[in-house]
Amino acid sequence: MNRVVKSAALLSAISLLVRFLGPVKGYLIADRFGVSRTLDAYYLSQNVVDVTLAIVTFSITLLVVPLFTEEFARRGRGDEPFHRSIDAFLCQTALIALVVCGALMVFSPQIAGRIPGFADATSRAELARILRAVSASLVFAIPFAVLAGYLYATARVVLPSLLNHLVLVATVASILFLAAPLGVLSIPVGGVLGTAIAFALIFAAFLRQRGRFRFGLRDTTVLKRVGGLLLPTMVFTAGGYVNLLTDQVVASSIGAGAVSLLAYSQFILTLPYVLVTLPILTAIFPELARHKASDGGAAMDETLGHGLVLLILALLPLLIALLYFRVPLVELFFRHGKFAPGFVPQAADILLAYGLSTILLSCNSLIQRLFLVEGKMVPLMGLTLVSLVANLAMDLYFAARLSVAGIALATSLNEAWYFAAILWLLRKSLPGIFPRWARHLTGQGLAAGGIMLASLLVSTQLVALPGTDRKVALAAALIVHGGIAAIGYGVALLLFSRGRALSLLRSRAR
Q1: Single pTM value for the model
Q2: Which domain covers residue 122, as residue numbers?
Q3: Number of separate domains in the chain
């Protein structure tokens, strides 16, 4: 238990550091590169690679961690044949990484030629050049997932999590010191360098844990064990990244800087997801797995229902504050350097259109955890495929009428129907998942959110926000106004719910 507590404390400290470096990276990108076609090329290239990473690395991690854990428990960690099969699987994934990286580099001009907004030869060549640079990270990132899965299975949790963050650290350093000579290319250069260092360090840790590494490609033990679940897992994990790539491809046809505007707005809206959703998902996922193995449906029903209500009530005040202060937040984060003032209202409109998707995406992610625990990958794959088609159709329809904000609105609508569909599937297997008390508590949370919004309207009318030229004063004013409104939301929720919200927190703590 002492080791678990130390690991949790260290991971929390790492997460705090990363949450600080994330805004720093966004601030530096806006300051150095603003909103431009070249930055659009970087975001598009990164998402092409992210789709590949999601398909391969996340699927590998999701499948091999339980496999390795089960085999080590059954055979013991000294079983040499199984270790040799892991060595072979590492070599096989490294070969796959080289092939995928080489294919992206070779076909980068053809990929660039398929993007609507990069029709001229100069921008197309720039996109191809950046795509080749970003693709180099695949050589290290894909085998890294196998090594991370091995260390996770042997209870070495902290090191892979720590090394994963080297990419962000190296990217920030690269922007600081290489932006002048390399331009936007400094961002992928930092990412590749960070990925290479992370792979070297985790391979050294693997050798220390493993004792001996044997090169080989013939042993297919691990491939056969994960093969049955590989296709639906790949489709499911790639869905969100493909939708994001679709959004950016459609946005590229609108004009220069449209992809960058989407990325800046998405960065602000990911803050509630990182602060609230990820910790709740991390806490509930293993608990659902334990209930699945022990007491079954009733306990899973209660855990997931409590998690959904807690997620909605925790995200609601953050979402209200973000949308109410969307203009000053865009001004604070991005209006400096090369970020032109004329883009601020456009980014704020995009932020407003994205608003609903924050809560819906979080709820969808939580419900998906239950499907993963129960091994129901085929329904998730089916919903993902329908989501890809619906997102593309709505992107094209709304972009033609509302420009970039229409793409954001299409994302919110796509998450809305997906939530309705996955909730309907869930209610068939767990009919008591959202009982009457949960619906009442959610309604009381919405009423408390209305009071919070009213308090923001009153407080900002009484004490106006300072101008954007005084960034420190503006940040302090946003914190004060938002903090007072959040306290009002909490008090109103407790009064409306008559202590039910507090009992929900105590239940989740247990």
Answers
A1: 0.75
A2: 1-248
A3: 1
